[in-house]
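Review form for a predicted model. The reviewer records the input and the model, then writes brief findings.
Reviewer: anonymous (R2)
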Amino acid sequence: MPTPGLTLTLPAEADTLRLGRILAETAPPSAVLLLAGALGSGKTSLVRGLTLALPGGDRAEIASPSFTLYNLYPTSPPVAHFDLYRLGAGRPDAEYFEWLDEIEAGRPALLALEWPERLGQDDLPGDYLLARLTMAPPGRAAALTAHGPTARRWLERVEEENRGETF
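Model under review:
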């Protein structure tokens, strides 16, 4: 059952990047971040902010993996960035399940997955933080919801980090 979440207004792209940085700074060593939202809602920008905040992020060429299905960024921990937009009704490639197995085994890694609604219920991870991004003129809004105990602790750390600050 999801934990009631946190909704943030992100007036500019810099605010989306800042939220990504906060997510990186508060992330557990092994975690899954699902990113839902329309085209152009800021999913890849959020992953960019997260990745750039990690050690090695300055070496990452961060881009939407719409055509390649996933990108692996040389960060510590590594970030596997999946985009299922073009998946249609199929199942993700084996790489998705391999990364999910690594995370569920507790190996340090972050899996960021765009378009999770393309997954079947059986293919969703058991524990994840969902970031639902929407357009909220003049910028965007991000609604974060925890699904599982690891994600719940992650969300609590995000709330503590953001306490008293506005975007």
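Findings: The chain has a mean pLDDT of 91.
Further findings: DSSP finds four helices and seven strands in the chain.
Recommendation: see findings above.
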